[in-house]
Amino acid sequence: MAEHRSMQRAALLDAARSLLSEGGTEALTFPALAERTGLARSSVYEYFRSRAAVVEELCEVDFPVWAAEVEAAMAAVDGAEAKIEAYVRAQLALVEDRRHRAVVAISASELDAGAREKIRAAHGGLVAMIVDALRDMGHEEPRLAAMLVQGVVDSAVRRIELGVEEPSVVAEATVSMVLRGVRG
Fold first, then answer.
1. Counting Cβ atoms within 10 Å, is residue 103 exposed (0-12), middle (13-18) or buried (19+)?
2. Which end of the chain is least crowded, N or C, by CB within 10 Å?
3. Are the CB atoms for 171 and 92 separated by under 8 Å?
4. What is d(CA 164, CA 174) in angstroms, rounded to the nearest whole number?
5. C-alpha 21: how far from chain center
6. How far apart are CA 94 and CA 102, in angstroms?
7. Cα separation of 20 and 91, whole Å?
């Protein structure tokens, strides 16, 4: 029974990712989740109390995977500057991942304060990955510099999502800007 519930929950999360990445917030409804998974609409409520709860769980499941991918990219290179470049490139590459698009698609205002705090804490863990590299480069305020780098990355993510420029063009401009900035 527990294995069946776990499989159903995973199917609901996968359906939620698809719905959010295909149609944004409006597409994530319990009837749509039920249709995608073959469950009765009332059964969806047995797993999640709200759309925000679905998104919160998506973040809890998917964010550690993204962070591990960024961390692996950084571990694959040597030197502070190369690690910062890997940090930026790995995050921008994730924009095309439907897991990322799904979570970004829903507004943080739909989440309760606890869920927003969990997401902030997860992002804080991501930012912490480059603090040492920035310290190694001689930054007096490496945590502040890391937050500013993440702000540039977040802006680049939004630009890629707009689809005006090719993602590779945005990535190159972002890497160039970040590296020039962190070199001082």
1. buried
2. N
3. yes
4. 15
5. 13
6. 11
7. 19
Instruction: Please name which of 119, 115, 117, 122 lies closest in space to residue 52, comparing C-alpha atoms.
Output: 115
Q: How far, in Å, CA of 1 to CA of 3, rounded?
A: 5
The three-class DSSP label of residue 112 is coil
pLDDT digits 0-9 by tens, 49-71 = 988 788 888 878 888 888 899 99
Phi/psi of residue 124, nearest 5 degrees: -60, -40
**How many whole angstroms from its chain centre is CA 96?**
11
Q: What is the per-residue pLDDT across 82-109, written as a single tens digit (0 to 9) for each?
A: 999 999 999 999 887 766 665 565 545 4
Report residue 113 CA to chain centroid gap: 18
150-to-54, 106, 156, 178, 184 alpha-carbon distances in Å: 26, 20, 10, 9, 16
